[in-house]
């Protein structure tokens, strides 16, 4: 079986102040407020970035690529966003790769789809 996937690449977020780095402006998908596992998170920023990724996915679907052929991935903050975007999407995607990342907003997290393959 030949597996064809579409690569959607957006290597970094927008330039914004990052609280964890003393407000220094840098490329970031969302604000990082703490390294503590129970520390505050930028819920609005995470969801806004997720919405942008979901929009990119839907653009690929409009171009003829089915959801089950789309896979997300990322490193560090990008990996965290890839996990969150995959797990909160209404359709089952091909999978997600998250490298050196974490699961943001884990307390309000929905049930994870069992139809998606995960490489963490």
Distance N to C terminus: 24 Å
Question: What's the architecture of the domain at 40-119, going by CATH?
Answer: 3-Layer(aba) Sandwich
Helix/sheet category = alpha/beta
Fourth-tier CATH superfamily name of the domain at 40-119: Alpha/Beta hydrolase fold, catalytic domain
Would you tell me the overall average pLDDT? 84
**Residue share in helix:** 25-40%
- Shape designation: globular
Organism: Homarus americanus (American lobster)
EC number: 3.1.2.22
GO molecular function: carboxylic ester hydrolase activity; palmitoyl-(protein) hydrolase activity
Pfam families: Abhydrolase_2
SSE layout and pairings?
Elements (H helix, E strand, L loop, with lengths): L13 E5 L5 E5 L14 H20 L8 E5 L1 H12 L6 E5 L17 E3 L1
Parallel strand pairs: 3-4, 4-5
Antiparallel strand pairs: 1-2
Helix pairs in contact: 1-2
Structural description of this entry:
This protein has about 120 residues and is α/β, with parallel strands linked by helices. The protein has a domain at about 40-120: Rossmann fold (3-Layer(aba) Sandwich). It has two helices and five strands, in the order E-E-H-E-H-E-E. It has a three-stranded parallel β-sheet with strand order 3-4-5, with helices on one face. Strands 1-2 form a two-stranded antiparallel sheet. The mean pLDDT is about 85.
């Amino acid at each position: 079986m030949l597996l064809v996937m579409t690569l959607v690449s957006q290597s970094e977020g927008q330039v914004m102040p990052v609280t964890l780095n003393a407000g220094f402006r840098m490329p970031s998908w969302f604000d990082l407020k703490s390294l503590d596992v129970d520390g505050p998170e930028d819920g609005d920023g995470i969801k806004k970035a997720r919405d942008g990724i979901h929009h990119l996915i839907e653009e690929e679907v409009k171009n003829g690529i089915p959801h089950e052929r789309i896979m997300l991935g990322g490193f560090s903050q990008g990996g965290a966003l890839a996990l969150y975007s995959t797990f909160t999407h209404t359709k089952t995607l091909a999978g997600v790769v998250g490298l050196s990342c974490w699961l943001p907003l884990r307390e309000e997290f929905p049930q994870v789809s069992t139809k998606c393959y995960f490489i963490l």
